[in-house]
Design a protein that fits this description.
alpha/beta, about 350 residues, four-stranded antiparallel beta sheet, Rossmann fold, 9 helices
């Protein structure tokens, strides 16, 4: 990106309700913005590629789908593609199919951590509308490396989970409406920042390497816990960092406490559906066997099988009722965003 003195590396995270926030942000940024903007929005792995076009039409900046090894240019918005993490290495974009972070790919924290390492004081991190806490830890790391953080006012956010979680971690964020954040980005991109020698951060460098190195990150930090990974069922290692507890499995899936609770809820639901499927299959097989017993006059065997089907039907009703109740409880009683950072 050439010789610059301002904060010229802007990383933005959003999730639920974030498309409108992103459109409003880009609408208010100038066409001659002296920074590159990298955007992560939580989307389905099978999501389409419409977001770059939507953001390109939102304002004067050019928005494109990020490509691996692209050189970062001022005045351009790079959008993480579905099912890929987007990171920064030097002055280039790195796309990765590395381990999911809190169940997401793309995710905000890998981008924020890599930007903190690559940009230091030149980095601006922005957290917009969304649920849970992706990006919160990254905000703390960006600040520690000399960068600055802005957070959408939770009262303006369609979903305030991500903003409130970031507020619980960031020490000196700018909090405001999307319009104010756009003005702040413009001002900070034109404000000189002093040169700073790179400082080693082995913890963050190891995490980023999980996405940019073909060899992965190596063994997780911390002690092995009593928990298993919601993604792959492998053992989880617990590390107490400066940003609170985090969990990582042997293949690199990484979780905050909030993210792991949400991931375990998904795993529980999957387990219920597997159990329901197996019961329904056994009932179908049992009914076929009953037909065969009756045709051969084996009434005692048929009666035993009828009793088995009756018990399976009762169990099926109980499982479906439990699955509904547990899912309703998960949706109705979320963990307060940021609470895990204060434990």
């Amino acid at each position: 990106m050439g010789d610059v003195t301002g904060r010229d590396l802007v990383v933005v995270a959003a999730s639920a309700g974030g498309v409108e926030s992103l459109r409003s942000l880009l609408k208010d940024l100038p066409g001659d913005l002296e920074a590159a903007v990298l955007v992560v929005l939580h989307i389905s792995p099978r999501g389409g590629s419409a977001l770059p076009g939507i953001l390109d039409r939102a304002g004067p900046l050019t928005a494109v789908a990020a490509e691996n090894d692209a050189i970062l240019k001022h005045g351009t918005v790079y959008v993480a593609p579905p099912d890929h993490h987007m990171l920064v290495r030097g002055d280039r974009v790195v796309l990765s199919r590395g381990p999911r972070h809190n169940g997401h790919r793309p995710a905000a924290d890998p981008l924020f951590l890599s930007a903190a390492l690559a940009g230091g004081r030149r980095t601006l991190a922005v957290v917009l509308s969304g649920t849970l806490d992706d990006g919160a830890r990254g905000c703390g790391v960006v600040e520690r490396h000399g960068g600055a953080v802005a957070i959408q006012d939770p009262d303006e956010s369609a979903f305030d989970g991500m903003p409130r979680a970031a507020l619980a971690v960031a020490e000196r964020p700018m909090v405001g409406t999307v319009t104010r954040i756009a003005r702040w980005i413009t001002r900070e991109s034109r404000t000189p920042v002093g040169a700073e020698a790179e400082t080693a951060d082995p913890e963050i460098e190891r995490e980023v390497s999980a996405h940019v190195s073909v060899r992965g990150a190596g063994p997780p930090d911390g002690e092995i816990s009593t928990f298993t990974c919601p993604e792959c069922n492998g053992p989880l290692f617990e590390a107490q960092g400066r940003d609170g507890a985090r969990y990582e499995c042997l293949v690199g899936h990484s979780w905050s406490m909030n993210g792991m609770v949400d991931g375990q809820a998904e795993a529980v639901e999957r387990a219920f559906w597997v159990a329901i499927l197996r019961l329904e299959e056994r009932m179908r097989i049992s009914r076929r066997m009953i037909t065969g017993f009756e045709q051969r006059g084996q009434r005692a065997s048929a009666r035993r099988m009828y009793e088995q089907v009756r018990q399976d039907e009762e169990a099926l009703v109980i499982l479906r009722d439990l699955q509904t109740k547990i899912r309703s409880a998960d949706e109705g009683s979320p963990i307060a965003p940021g609470d895990e950072t204060r434990r």
